[in-house]
Amino acid sequence: MQDFYNIDSLLSEEEIAVRDSVRRFVDDNVLPIIGECYVEGRFPKEIVPGLAELGVFGANLPEEYGCAGLNNVAYGLIMQELERGDSGVRSFASVQGALVMYPIYAFGSEDQKQHYLPKMAAGEIIGCFGLTEPDFGSNPAGMITMAREQSDGSWMINGAKMWITNGSTAQVAVVWAKTNDDKDQRSIRGFIVPTNTKGFRARDQKGKLSLRASDTSELVLEDVRVPKDALLPKSGGLKSPLMCLTQARYGISWGALGAAIACFEEASSYAKTRIMFDRPIGGFQLQQLRLAEMLTEIVKGQLLCVQLGRLKDRGEFTPQQVSLAKRNNVHIATDIARE
């Protein structure tokens, strides 16, 4: 898409290079196969090694853990280009980086970080994020999943999670559960749970009409016993998973622009080649207006995201600002897709 507002002038050479590298990867490796994946309802696992080689998993986490150490604008541009290919591809990378690698980095012990993050950055371990539950959806305060500490220090987890991206693909899950402390008060803690643990099951959810090129699962945990070092020691309370969701929402705010750009490019290309009354339909003012409105909203969304990314890099952003950008950009993307 033409850089109508010269947004590249707001970006560094590294940010542009990262964006263009991911753009080429999507053009060469995602777009040729994603239609078939949609029809078949499967995530294209064959692209995972290439994504890892590009450094997209946990791209804004430190290099000392095998990650790319990019700033948040570069990370956002990665999400934009991945979702230009398909929302399921961006979702895969978002969950891996923002919802699994980030909580291990933010709340994990040094041993946990050293063990998991380099392997996840390399795509050797795939993760999923177990927060949403069947009965409470986006209200994690109503969580039912319970983790009870055993006499030997291990934990017994029971519960279920729903709409979990990567659930049937993952080798490890970050599971959020309520616990009982010494004062019999409930708090929410995070646990790293290998998916081959006895009592852990992941079941794909069938019949989706969107995000078809993405694995979405239900997780069931029945007397899943994990050692005491499975606990993310710095996690505690509802704030911890909500911090993870803020990271994911930031990526989605950029990613939705990628979906909008793909729709605009498709509509623009079609308007130039579809002939009606002896000329392309793009020559009629009705179609020109529709395309102009699409482009206007995309440009506004890009400017919003660049500013948000700069605020995030300076440590000055708020969750409310992230939510505003996500809400706006998802809204314009769905409108552009419908149009």
Structural write-up:
The protein is of the alpha+beta class and 339 residues long. 49% of the residues lie in helices and 17% in strands. It contains eight helices and nine strands. It has helices at 13-40, 48-54, 72-85, 87-107, 110-121, 239-273, 285-313, 319-338, and strands spanning 127-130, 146-149, 155-165, 172-180, 186-194, 200-204, 216-226, 275-276, 279-280. Strands 1, 2, 3, 4, 5, 6 and 7 form a seven-stranded mixed beta sheet that branches. The protein is globular and about 80 Å long. The mean pLDDT is 95.
What can be said about this structure in brief?
With 339 residues, the protein is α+β, with helices and mostly antiparallel strands. It has helices spanning 13-40, 48-54, 72-85, 87-107, 110-121, 239-273, 285-313, 319-338, and strands spanning 127-130, 146-149, 155-165, 172-180, 186-194, 200-204, 216-226, 275-276, 279-280.
